[in-house]
Design the sequence.
């Protein structure tokens, strides 16, 4: 049976689907059979130490005031910060929503890049706020000067500034110098949300994490997740790092809904530095190999610093291509307007990527370098 895309990712009744929480509409067996390269998950799964930690926490399933592994203290120590710098959330998606709810009330605006991680903008729309979206430059980098200008030109109505670094869906980083320029160039006191969901996969020396800006007391909120390198996407755990005053402003809007297994799993995963280094290495190797193979096949890709990348389909639009992959048992990324001639592909295991490359070569004929230049 072939299910349509909307059937495969049906929104559960009564739920508010976000970019990451659409529910698979086929049978469990259909889902298990699919090669999942659509949602930038970690196809290696959580390591044994993390599974053991989660399993050991079941005994608290009937409790409210249970020991939580000191998860907030562990996160703070991991970054050289204090517990009052940490807001624990159900995935970093909750951080993005809490920031929106805190700083966009009264119809304020968020300034960000376009395309970028859409849930920030859709949440703004949901709460009757707005987004000022500054298009990426021709080389897919964020137009930081343009974004700074937009923040200053609209300073009375802008509630916060959003930087997804590295960016989803393009996989491109904003170099440290440009992040600093944004932090210093937007109006004083304007909160800047830096979404670092994919920072573990970066190997570009021009990149830096933004925790130092939090240490300096700047109005910076760093969003982090255990969904990607730590492979805990379905457990729903992430956090914000920010100066205590901003954490205090945001806390009332957080649901405080992280479950006991996720907390114990997160604490164990913070200690799993060797396992994470290994996954990072495998993903970067697979990313390099897959992009190189596609280029050799005649299809240009956007250089990526994440566990996904985009490939140009030339004249073909992405939606029918997604269907062709699905018919071959492979789930790939959804359309990301206005980049409708690009396909986003997550990096799975080496075996997943071999199957992806085989399917790609069946769908797309080999092209010469001159055709590629035109595509
Ligand atoms: C850039 C970015 N930020 C945040 C998230 C939210 O992830 P989670 O809520 O699982 O932490 C995602 C998920 O794909 C993402 O791509």
Sequence:
């Amino acid at each position: 049976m072939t299910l349509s895309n909307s059937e495969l990712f049906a929104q559960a009744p009564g739920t508010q689907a976000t970019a990451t929480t659409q529910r698979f509409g086929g049978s469990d067996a259909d889902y298990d059979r699919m090669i999942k390269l659509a949602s930038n998950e970690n196809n290696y799964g959580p390591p044994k130490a993390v599974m053991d930690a989660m399993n050991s926490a079941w005994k608290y399933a009937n409790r409210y005031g249970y020991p939580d592994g000191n998860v907030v203290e562990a996160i703070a120590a991991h970054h050289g910060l204090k517990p009052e710098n940490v807001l624990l959330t159900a995935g970093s998606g909750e951080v993005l929503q809490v920031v929106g709810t805190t700083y966009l009330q009264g119809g304020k605006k968020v300034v960000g890049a376009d395309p970028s991680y859409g849930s920030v903008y859709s949440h703004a729309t949901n709460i009757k706020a707005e987004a000022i979206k500054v298009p990426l430059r021709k080389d897919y980098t964020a137009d930081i000067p343009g974004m700074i200008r937009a923040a200053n030109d609209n300073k009375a109505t802008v509630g916060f500034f959003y930087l997804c670094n590295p960016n989803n869906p393009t996989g491109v980083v904003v170099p440290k110098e440009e992040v600093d320029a944004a932090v210093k160039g937007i109006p004083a006191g304007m909160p800047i949300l830096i979404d670092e969901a994919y920072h573990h996969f970066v190997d570009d020396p021009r990149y830096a994490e933004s925790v130092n800006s939090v240490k300096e007391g700047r109005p910076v909120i760093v969003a982090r997740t255990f969904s990607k390198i730590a492979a805990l996407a379905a457990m729903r755990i992430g956090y914000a790092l920010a100066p205590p005053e901003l954490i205090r402003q945001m806390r009332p809007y957080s649901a405080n809904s992280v479950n006991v297994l996720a907390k114990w799993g997160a604490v164990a995963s913070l200690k799993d530095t060797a396992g994470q280094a290994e996954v990072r290495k495998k993903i970067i190797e697979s990313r390099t190999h897959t992009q190189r193979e596609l280029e050799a096949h005649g299809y240009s890709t956007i250089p990526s610093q994440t566990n996904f990348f985009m490939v140009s389909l030339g004249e073909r639009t992405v939606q029918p291509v997604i269907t062709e992959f699905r018919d071959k048992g492979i789930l790939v990324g959804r359309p990301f307007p206005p980049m409708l001639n690009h396909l986003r592909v997550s990096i799975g295991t080496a075996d997943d990527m071999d199957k992806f490359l085989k399917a790609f070569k069946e769908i797309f004929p080999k092209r010469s370098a001159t055709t590629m230049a035109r595509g």
Observations:
- Residues 20, 40, 91-93, 117, 164, 168, 195, 197, 225, 227, 233, 238 surround pyridoxal-5'-phosphate (CB under 6 Å).
- The longest helix spans residues 273-296.
- The mean pLDDT is 93.
- DSSP finds 15 helices and eleven strands in the chain.
